[in-house]
Amino acid sequence: MTAVRIDISVKDKNGRIVHVPVKSGEIQANLPDCGQLPKQFTPQDPVCAASTAQGNFTGQINYDGQNPYTFQWSFVLNAATAALATGPMVEDADIFANGQRLGNYHDHHAGIPSDYTLHSSVGGLTTAVNYQLGVHEVFPTANGAQATVNATFDFAITLVR
After folding, report:
1. What are phi and psi of 15, to 5 degrees?
2. Distance CA 2, CA 35 (A)
3. What is the pTM of this model?
4. All structural domains of the chain
5. What is the pLDDT of residues 118-137, one digit of tens each?
6. What whole-number distance in Å separates Cα of residue 72 and Cα of residue 157?
7. In 45-143, which ranges are continuous DSSP H helix?
8. Distance in angstroms (rounded) separating the CA atoms of residues 75 and 50
9. pLDDT digits 0-9 by tens, 87-122
10. What angle do CA 120, 150, 30 make, to 5 degrees?
11. What is d(CA 91, CA 76) in angstroms, rounded to the nearest whole number?
12. Which SS3 state, helix, strand or coil, does residue 27 take?
């Protein structure tokens, strides 16, 4: 099982899923993992970088001797997937702790290009918690269809390997 997962679906203007060629990247894809699920960030291994045919993800914990910790992340669609967009993209991201959405964090961007590198950070994270980053992107495609990209990243913060 992988630590990062990306699902991409394309729906027409009536909400029906449109079948598209695999070469366009509109399939569920799993990024290579950065270790076991969830990713265990440690001071010795504070970064996760993974790629797939649909995009690139990076996540890291800032181990600056301070607790709580800061999680920094970025995600960008690859050129082939981004090229499917016929208009601007809307992005929303949330962090969940043990299945509950953190109320102090929500990332939202509207009207951004589909090749934009999304990036954000959230502080106040601690050890002994299972976290999940959820990223949701929507953009228009040809013939009035709409593509939805959902990416998740499961992780935990630890002090020992």
Report:
1. 90, 5
2. 8
3. 0.81
4. 4-157 (2.60.40)
5. 999 999 999 989 999 988 88
6. 13
7. 79-82
8. 10
9. 999 999 999 999 999 988 999 999 999 999 999 999
10. 100
11. 11
12. coil
